[in-house]
Design goal:
- By secondary structure, this protein is an alpha/beta fold.
- The protein is 30% helix and 19% strand.
- The chain is built from 13 helices and 18 strands.
- Strands 4-3-2-5-6 form a 5-stranded parallel beta sheet. The chain has a 5-stranded parallel beta sheet with strand order 16-15-14-17-18. It has a 4-stranded parallel beta sheet with strand order 10-9-8-11, covered by helices on one side.
- A hairpin with a 7-residue loop joins strand 12 and strand 13 (278-280).
- The protein is globular, with a radius of gyration of 20 Å.
Length: 416
């Protein structure tokens, strides 16, 4: 029996010729990631275990993006601890305020991650990168920083076959919301979501990163796409080191196969309080108080362009707060250069610095009791964006921008 893409990556990292689902492997790590919430815990454990130096200062990434710029004294203390550790250990990929971005937008943009690599991060959305990249706890992060290794149980895989072409305004966000709605939040529990089929070429890299980002919302260990010309073009000028493309064997074994016909896929939203609670956006008319466009899921320049295209010449509804959060400083620069910031501000939205902010109920858009938001973020659990009495409807940037104008869940055709 052949191997999946993920199994081949893990086998290489473990120095073995073959592996199969269920085996335990000790793998060499290409990158260990932490942020201003999870890294301080890992740093404490790093010292507690008696470690002195990280295994490789160039293979650690410390990204202060959750509560930074510091929202309060506790946040400042956590950021300071991570900053001092980064300086003491000469961490190459530490990004200070003014250079930092949302971790899962920043790392692909800067070429810090690449196909075929094994990456762990003390953040559940580390599955974004399309390699074998997966979230771990802060203790595993500490051990990874010290040893450069981590053990894994080789996952089974769900094969997701994409066919056809996407309709106007349909995006990668709609693909992953539809998939989670079909298989459920535990439909790929501790499995790899491996995307394939002729429809893959219809999805740009930003859309693929969005899809992989939300693999965890189906319980998946990672999400991964085959390397094709679209991927290679994205990597040009970003990744200068050697990397390896792995393809699944024709006889690779999968726990199940799910087929999504992109020709039939429509704009999709996820209603409170689980990502699997999906509906066609056209069927929803809930009134809203806030719109968030951004996050590690949808904070890239293509997302900003879609939102601006819809908001241009329109006004955000009088009873809606629209918050636009670019994923990185490069996205900020691109938005300024392309005039998108003017469009957002003229429409009545606020354009902020790169931050996770409201996605986890941190700051910069926390919801009060009884408030409802349409958001391009990745989770809509109870209390995720603030008060336990608030609600989140997950959507694409296109639906979010249209909703901001209409003051309720809406689609672009209603405003254009």
């Amino acid at each position: 029996m052949g191997m999946t893409m993920t199994q081949k990556i893990l086998a290489r990292a473990a120095g073995v010729e073959r592996c199969r689902a269920g085996e335990l492997l000790m793998c060499k790590l290409d990158l260990v990631l932490g942020n201003d919430i999870t890294a301080p815990v890992a740093i404490n454990e790093f010292h507690r275990m008696g470690a002195v130096k990280v295994f490789d200062p160039a293979k650690i990434a410390l990204i202060p993006d959750h509560f930074v710029p510091n929202k309060d004294i506790k946040a400042a203390t956590l950021a300071k601890q991570m900053r001092e550790f980064a300086r003491a250990q000469h961490i190459v990929h530490y990004y200070e305020v003014g250079r930092v971005g949302i971790e899962h937008a920043l790392l692909p943009e800067q070429g810090i991650v690449a196909p075929g690599e094994v990456i762990i991060g003390a953040d559940s959305h580390t599955c974004t990168y399309g390699a074998f990249s997966t979230g771990v706890g802060s203790t595993d992060m500490a051990v990874g920083m010290a040893t450069g290794e981590c053990w894994f149980k080789v996952p089974e895989a769900v094969k997701v076959v994409l066919t056809g072409k996407m309709k106007p305004w349909v995006s990668g966000k709609d693909v992953i919301l539809h998939l989670i709605g079909e298989i459920g939040v535990d439909g790929a529990l501790y499995q790899s979501l491996e995307f394939t089929g002729d429809g893959v070429k219809e999805i740009p890299m930003d859309g693929r990163l969005t899809i992989a980002n939300m693999a965890i919302e189906a319980g998946a260990k990672n999400g991964i796409f085959p390397v094709d010309d679209v991927c290679r073009e994205y990597l040009k000028g970003r990744v200068t080191r050697e990397w390896t493309a792995f393809e699944a064997d024709p006889d690779a074994e999968y726990s199940r196969t799910v087929t999504i016909n992109l020709d039939e896929l429509d704009m999709t939203v996820s209603l409170p309080h689980l990502p699997e609670n999906t509906r066609p956006a056209r069927e929803c008319r809930q009134t809203i108080d806030q719109v968030v466009i951004g996050s590690c899921t949808n904070g890239r320049i293509s997302d900003m362009r879609v939102a601006a295209q819809i908001l241009k010449g329109h006004k955000v509804s009088d009873h809606v707060r629209c918050i636009v959060i670019p994923g990185t400083q490069q996205v900020v620069k691109d938005c300024l250069k392309e005039g998108l910031v003017d469009i957002f501000i003229d429409a009545g939205a606020i354009f902020t610095m790169p931050t996770c902010g409201p996605c986890l109920g941190g700051f910069c858009g926390v919801l009060a009791d009884g408030e409802r938001a349409v958001s391009t973020t990745n989770r809509n659990f109870v209390g995720r964006m603030g008060h336990t009495g608030s609600e989140i409807i997950l959507a694409s940037p296109a639906v979010a921008a249209a909703s901001a104008i209409m003051g309720r869940v809406a689609t672009p055709e209603e405003v254009l």
